[in-house]
Every structure is written in structure tokens, then in C-alpha cells.
Amino acid sequence: MDLSATSSKAAMVMGVIRQRLIGRVLTPGAKLPSVRSLSGTLSVSTSTVVDAYERLVAEGAIVSRPGSGFYVANQAAPFSPAEAGPKLDRAVDPFWISRQSLESSEDSLKPGCGWLPPSWLPEEAMRKSLRTLSRAEPSSLADYGTPLGLYPLRRLISRRMGERGIEASPEQIMLTESGTQAIDLLCRFLIEPGDTVLVDDPCYFNFHALLRAHRAKIVGVPYTANGPDLAAFAAIVSEHRPRLYITNSAIHNPTGAVLSPVTAHRVLKIAEEFDLTIVEDDIFADFETVAAPRLAAFDGLERVIHIGSFSKTLSAAARCGFIAARPDWIEGLTDLKIATSFAGGRMTEEVVHAALSDGGYRKHLDALRARLSKAMAEVTKKLAAIGIEPVLHPQSGMFLWCRLPGETDAAEVARACLQKQIVLAPGNAFSLSQSAKNCMRFNVSQTLDPRIFETLKSALKA
């Protein structure tokens, strides 16, 4: 490759255009910036831009129309979610955290992962449910499920939602394979490529990855101890007019914050004014010791869509989630589910229903909450001893959002600890604005091994 200055600048221009193509900022048929305009924007000569454009024409990425300019070729490049985001250090890339957590060996320690250790989950209840399923009618083992999902499980979910003040009939509930699939279906149903979606900053990092896969424009709103910053929320919604807002009301991920009633009412008022649809992700509901306000309860499922799953408290291997929404949206989502996955996982739904219906599940949750509370206190104390302090003290849940001492780069700490087979979750993976460089999320159930604190201490000194 010619490494002359001119060639390097042309390659830089090509990289800028490729990034816009991959992220679908420039779609097939769209006109590219003029040579003069782009040269001014990138502070390069017009001949450099012409060189870059001609090379992209040779690659087939763009086409030249004499007298008109350059246009994106009709055959778009394959979409890559990882490429669509900003070029971050792999230590703060959401895919890095997920892949390290999922692909690491059983010997690895995973304080950065988002699930409980297997020993904390109701193994015997799951085995009992599987034994019950093995004696079920042949249709439960071999037939397709209904598109909405197993009715007895939807009825049970309806009752459980009612305990939190959310009224939804079984007909307003559709089962999904997970909370992630629920959001994926909602994005397919409600947004088009290029639409703006609002998320909290910080928020669950896979929201970023999933929204990039849907070619959405992502905008972040600062999150506080009581919910989104209301002044910023109002200003951002007014300026960007997002189609969706995805958030956690109870046990926010990663901060552990809880939405206040005052904030909830104000958010809904702004949403109504600007016709904003809200997706309320409630997958941590069963960790709560005191029920937090739910947007869906105040709104009555008019513009709020409520989703949840059972991966966190029952089993990550039995993937089952749900969407609760107004009836006309459930109708459309049902058609979309048939188009994309045809029917639900009937066996999984049967197993989950049997486990949730067993009286032991509530006892399991009581014991789990107590165990998490004890772990939260223990981990907070041990982290403080090495200079790591929580940004706030959560009421419940398994996450502790912490600030590292001074200007410590959490990504560097994560890289160092990975050498010792310890997977961490650096703060900037959760932050769209990249403003959490010295923050880190700890899963207290996975942060009890003394080796974690010893390794963290050494990494901080280094």
C-alpha cells in the first residue's frame, strides 16, 4: 500500500465514507457530499477527496454520475453492528464484555457479567419442572405453540403485573424468547432505519448494540438517582423528537437507581406532548424488596410498553420473556412474531410456567433477596477498602455502579484483570457520551472471591 501523505489522507477520507455506509447514515442511492464540501469539512485538498471517491467507485461502494456527483451504490455493504458504533477500545466495547462473559472458561471470575451464579438459581425447581414436562401430553413436546404463547403462563404474568399496579389482561401479553427478543421485535415494529431512539446515559450496553443493528440514531439522556434528568429529557425530546425511549424504572441497569413518582409523572407528560413511545424494561422486578413506581402503571399501557423476562431469577438457559402492550399493538406484534420466528418455544414456556407456579419460587426469591443484600454490603465494604466507591447505594438488586479512584481508566483496569481471568465491565461501555471512563459496574453475586479484590488492588496501583 502506498503510504505517502496523499495516499494516507485519501484512505482517511475513504474510512469516513465507509463508516457512514456501514452505519447506514448514507443509504443506497443517497448523494455523497460534494468534493468541495467534504474537503472543507475534513480539512484536506479537493484532489484528495477526488482520489478517495474514485477508489470507492472502483470498489463498487459508490457510483459517479457525470454532472451530478457521487452516489451510494444500490448494493449496500453487509451491516456490522460492531462497525456501526464509535471506534472504541475493545475493553469498553459492549461486544467485548458480552463475549468475554459468555465465552470465558468456567475457571474465570466474572464480576462484570449480568447474571447470577448457577448455584444461586433454583436448580431443583427447574429439574422438577423438566420431570413434569417429560410426563406431559405429546403435543407439549412436539407441537408448535401459539403465537401469543402459553395461555396459563400469560395469565400468571398478568396476575404478577397486577401486584405492581399494572393492569394487563392475558390477551395483552405476548411471550418472547427473552427480554432482548422483546426489544428486537418492538424495534422492528415501531421504528425505521434512521429513526431516533432515546436511551439513558448510562444504560445497559446491549441497548446500544441492538439499536445499531436496527440502524437507529441513538441519543442519550443523563440518568440520576431518581430517573432521567428532567431538564435534559425535555430539551432532548423537543430537539430530536425520538420515536422511542428505552429505560428501566425499577433497579436501573447499571446504576441500581429507582424512578421516583414525580419524575415518572413528568416523563409521561413530556412523552404525551411529543408523541413519544416508552419501552419499560422490567427484567429485574423480582429482585425488588420494595416495589418502585412503574411508568406502565401510571400510563395504563397507552404509550408505555412493558417487557420482562425470567432469565435473571429462574434460569438463563430457559429463555422466556414477554411484552405487555395495548391490544392493537399486540395484534401487529403477533403477526411480526409469526413472520420472524413463527411460534413460541412451547417446551420452555411449559417449564417456566411449572417453575413459577410452584410454591417454592417465592421462597427462592425471599432467600435470594436476602443473599443479595448481604453480598451488596460485603462487596461495598471490600471495594471501599481499595478506594472504589459506589456512585449511589441501591435499595436492591445485584449491581453496584462504582467510581474508581482519581482519573483511573476503567478500560485499562479491565485489560489488566483479564490477564488474570477476571472479566470486568468498564463504565464507558454503558455510556453513549463516553463520560464514564473511571466508572465500573460490579455484579455483587459474582464479586465475592478474594482474588478479585487482590487483582483489582494490583491493577489500580499499576
TrEMBL record:
GO terms for molecular function: DNA binding; DNA-binding transcription factor activity; pyridoxal phosphate binding. Residues 7-75 form the HTH gntR-type domain. It holds the Pfam family Aminotran_1_2. Keywords: DNA-binding, Pyridoxal phosphate, Transcription, Transcription regulation. InterPro entries: Aminotransferase_I/II_large (IPR004839), HTH_trans_reg/aminotransferase (IPR051446), PyrdxlP-dep_Trfase (IPR015424), PyrdxlP-dep_Trfase_major (IPR015421), PyrdxlP-dep_Trfase_small (IPR015422), Tscrpt_reg_HTH_GntR (IPR000524), WH-like_DNA-bd_sf (IPR036388), WH_DNA-bd_sf (IPR036390). In the C-terminal section; belongs to the class-I pyridoxal-phosphate-dependent aminotransferase family. PANTHER family: HTH-TYPE TRANSCRIPTIONAL REGULATORY PROTEIN GABR, TRANSCRIPTIONAL REGULATORY PROTEIN. This is DNA-binding transcriptional MocR family regulator. It comes from Aliirhizobium cellulosilyticum.
